[in-house]
Amino acid sequence: MSDLTPKRIQAPLVWDDVILDLQDLLRAHEPPVYLVGGAVRDAYLRRPMKDVDLVTGGSGLALGRTIANRLGGAFYPLDSERDVGRAILDTPDGRLVLDAARFRGGDLRSDLVDRDFTINALAVEMAGDLDVVLDVVGGVDDLANKILRRCSPQSLANDPVRALRAVRQSVQFGFRIEAATLADVRGVGARLLDVSIERVRDEYFKLLALPRAALALRVLASIGLLHVLLPELDSLPPEQWQQMLAAVERWSDIYLTISPQRTDETAAQFSLGTMVVALDRFRGSLQAHTGAVWADERQHRALMTLALLLSPFGAETAEAYAVRLHLSNDERARLATVARSLDSFGALGDLNPTAIYRFWKRTRAAGVDVILLGLAKYLGEAGVRLNQTEWLKQVERAQILLDAYFDQREQLVDPPTLVNGSDLMRALGISAGRHVGDLLEQIREAQVNGLVTTAGDALDFARLHVNDHPSKL
What we know:
Blueprint: E1 6-8, H1 17-26, E2 33-36, H2 38-45, E3 51-56, H3 60-71, E4 74-79, E5 84-91, E6 94-102, H4 108-113, E7 122-125, E8 132-135, H5 139-145, E9 147-148, H6 155-158, H7 161-173, E10 176-177, H8 179-188, H9 197-208, H10 213-222, H11 225-229, H12 238-258, H13 270-279, H14 283-290, H15 300-310, H16 314-324, H17 329-347, H18 353-363, H19 366-382, H20 388-406, H21 409-413, H22 421-428, H23 434-448, H24 455-468
Parallel strand pairs: 3-6, 9-10
Antiparallel strand pairs: 1-8, 2-3, 2-7, 4-5, 5-6, 7-8
Helix pairs in contact: 7-8, 7-9, 7-10, 9-15, 10-12, 12-15, 12-19, 13-20, 15-17, 16-17, 17-19, 18-19, 19-20, 22-24, 23-24
């Protein structure tokens, strides 16, 4: 382990403009402020920067508040006990989260050694040259050699969640996990159950949101961590497990196809090319849907991947799993709906107005998840034996359902309310009960079929229905 000897990086680090603004603001700050961790790593790797960590020998809360005030951002006292303040800044590239903290261990060297992996334990002094890196654990060499290495033999034992982070970052950056670090990852896996479930969950969701989530899942399975996270998968036959991984891979392909990052090469395959032709007019709406974010920055894309993993086990297991992860009630309901409905997508027959309406009544917003994951599951199960004719039918089914949801919602998904239960009871002289709700549902189905368009039509339809089915009152 080396001293805090500055290292000049040969190729200049790539910094966002906001970092240069911060440098101007903090150049004369006392005590000195250091940019540390993932931001330095990302500048080296020329990756977009979303989060910034600053450390100082003084108060992190005061530093965070100063930055927020001077740069027009919002301030939050993130952790008063550990003296960590958070500033949230709006930049031309989107929202930037900036955390300012007091040194861990009393000085910069101790702070860096206490971090997880060497590539995340680099620092630059905000008052100095931003191409000069302070490196006490060999992170610069590991970045150059694409190696993920623990900072110390205690790094993972001190925080088992770092085992999940090791898998995620190795896949995310295409780095090899060094042998001793991998042994520690295996060794602390069982202790994930002893850690705050919220911390495990949030790192797990970051992994599930990766473009190569299937590879990350394979790695987790091979080192025994997936059994800890999702023991239900142990009951899947090997062939079904491989199909599940293939479905996750195809879901990543579909996500990329509808994302802003799509290229001509992305959709070169027949399966994805046909999707582009049929569904591209919904692309903006699908991006908004799949790009949603739940509480604590959990990406909806990750929730959809989790829904795909849970789908073989049914809605009850999906709900129970959501409870175990301390997900919100809305996330729990979404997982259960997808698990309940995913297999039905491929089995839908004639999509007449009634069938379309009933599909969306069962699924609501989760129906979009069901459609996209249903396509992914079909491709995963078909593999190289894809039947082009059958695939075109799947895509056409998706097109019809999405057209109803995004472009014909009032006609086919949520017809306007023409009469309510009180109107029916008063006009027909019937008492309250379940039959009133059933009658309102019959009216809505008549609306989507064009048989009812006014309140008078609705009452006439209800009278006929009551006359034809008096025993149901």
